[in-house]
Amino acid sequence: MASPGPKRKRRPRVGRPAAERPRKAARPVATPQELDLFFALTLDLLCIADFDGYFKRLNPAWERVLGYSRQELIGRPYIEFVHPDDREATLAEAAKLNAGGTVVTFENRYRCKDGSYKWLLWNSAPLPARQLIFAAARDITGRKRAEAQLQQYADEISDLYNNAPCGYHSLGPDGTILRINDTELRWLGYSREELVGKRKLPELLAPQSLTRFQAEFPRFKERGWVRDIEFDLVRQDGSVLPVLLNATAVRDAGGNYVMSRSTVLDNTERRALERMKDEFIAMTGHELRTPLTALRGALAILAGGRHGVLDEKGTHMLEIAVESTDRLSRLVNDLLDLQRMELGRLQMEKKPCDAARLLRDTLGALQPLAEKAQVKLETAPADLTVQCDAGRIIQALTNLISNAIKFSPPGESVQVRVERRNADAVFSVEDRGRGIPPEHLEGIFERFRQVYDSDAREHGGTGLGLAISRGIVQQHGGRIWADSRPGGGAVLRFTLPLASAAGGEPGGAS
Predict the structure, then answer these.
(1) Is 460 left (phi over 0), alpha (psi -120 to 50) or beta?
(2) 364-369 CB contacts, 8 Å cutoff, 24+ apart
(3) What is the spatial distance between Cα 387 and Cα 348, in angstroms, rounded to a whole number?
(4) Dist CA 39 CA 59 (whole Å)
(5) 122 touches 105 (CB < 8 A)
(6) Domain 351-497 sits in which CATH superfamily?
(7) Measuring CA to CA, which residue among 182, 179, 200 is closest to residue 191?
(8) Ranges of CATH 3.30.565.10 domains, the chain
(9) Superfamily assignment of 32-140 in CATH?
(10) Rounded Cα distance, 421 and 472, in Å
């Protein structure tokens, strides 16, 4: 293969140096006609003014937005059309441009040809070399009107919030006060600066209320609401304000608890009325106990036949009289027990008790009632020792179980259990009755509270059993609550401290 021959050298071109060659003329970015078209098509208001503030050029949008023709504005000072209240601020912005500023943004009101004003949002920039100012403005009147309406609504809502006849507050996850209205501040005697972001609600609770708050708060976070919970708040001067609290939890998209909103009602008058009522009940109860005892004794003598034998009709009427007297006696005794509990005068002798024996003793006493109602009582063995007053806990269990028997259909069963949960024993009584509506779950432990109007007529009872059970459990340092779904039965639970956790030594039943 023949090798390639030597490369031929290219001869340089002969001509003028590049620096001496003529350049092509630069084409302008836009012709004046094209700039006029751009100005005409732009929806915003465009203008050019000199540093003295006189219009030099405007686009057609000025006529569409403000009603002026360009000929009516060119050569006139722009400040002449600014609302008198906005002129000082507008001149201050213009001074920034004259002092070498780059771009300034501001709002002002501009006069229309019909005498009305529109809000404009301005962006302005200087062109120092030509002593000109370029500016673009956008009509924001609609936005300003909407903002004014929103502010009016916000002011009205704020006024309603702060001057409502009840207190309102919001708490963070750790109980820190995030917001509180003026009404509650007046009640407590604090300023907003002293509480918001600095204090936690538990710090304002009286000792007994703090214990209840700590017991209720985990359940509140789980359920998301509480209704009509009574607390005592401590005012700045040290006095106590009884309140009734309703709270709702707020959760994020992931279902996590982030804050709570609460309504607070002044409970002072209601508490005073309840105190008067309790005093009246206590006095009446004591006055009734003696004649009831005498009446019951007289009925027993009649039933024994010491003054003659009654016929069938008389015997039936006597049985009704005895039953009514016994029911009235139970009511008086329940009222007095409840009164003593609320005054802290109910005597309790707490010691280690076998939880299984407490259940056996209670179920044994209630077996006749269950058989009469054709309801089966079921329980499971448990090896737990609780610190309690055995008699009072049996009283509480009796109230819960007899209540479950009453509302169980014939042929169903009532499950009674006790199990360990951390340092507590949890007693539960579960029935298969009609259940409790969600709105009544908290209220069933109030005095004389009936879920359905017909309950008192159909099932009898004093209407105080669950209230007494709650008082007994609370005096043991436990808590009591109900879970249910309509038509699916109900479960009533309460906690008691284990003997070891309460500082007692395990032992047998009392």
Answers:
(1) left
(2) 365/394, 365/398, 366/398, 366/401, 366/402, 366/405, 369/402, 369/405
(3) 11
(4) 5
(5) yes
(6) Histidine kinase-like ATPase, C-terminal domain (3.30.565.10)
(7) 182
(8) 351-497
(9) PAS domain (3.30.450.20)
(10) 20
Q: What is the mean pLDDT of the chain?
A: 83
Residue whose structure tokens are 């962006």: 123
Angle (CA) 210-212-216 rounded to 5° is: 120
Q: What is the CATH number of domain 163-266?
A: 3.30.450.20
Q: What is the band of 428 on the pLDDT scale with cuts at 50, 70, 90?
A: very high
- 472, 460 Cβ separation under 8 angstroms: no
- State the average pLDDT over residues 43-65: 91
Lookup result for tokens 């049996």: 394
Structural element, H or E, at residue 354:
strand 351-354
**Residue ranges of the chain assigned to CATH 3.30.450.20:** 32-140, 163-266
CATH class of segment(s) 271-342? mainly alpha
Structure tokens at 162: 């702060």
| Cβ atoms of 335 and 327 closer than 8 Å | no
What DSSP element (H or E) covers 470?
helix 465-475
Measure the CA–CA gap between 326 and 338, rounded to whole angstroms: 18
The C-alpha atoms of residue 289 and residue 295 are separated, in whole angstroms, by 10
Give pLDDT, residue 388: 92
Q: Are 416 and 399 in contact (CB under 8 A)?
A: no
Cα 360 to Cα 379: distance, rounded to the nearest angstrom: 9
- Distance (Å) of CA 280 to CA 158, 274, 276, 329: 43, 10, 6, 17
Q: For residue range 250-276, what is the model confidence (pLDDT) as tens digits?
A: 999 888 899 999 999 999 988 888 778
Residues of CATH 1.10.287.130 domain(s) within the chain? 271-342
User: What DSSP character marks residue 115?
Assistant: S
The pLDDT-based confidence of 99 (bands split at 50, 70, 90) is confident
pTM of the predicted model as reported, rounded to 2 decimal places: 0.48
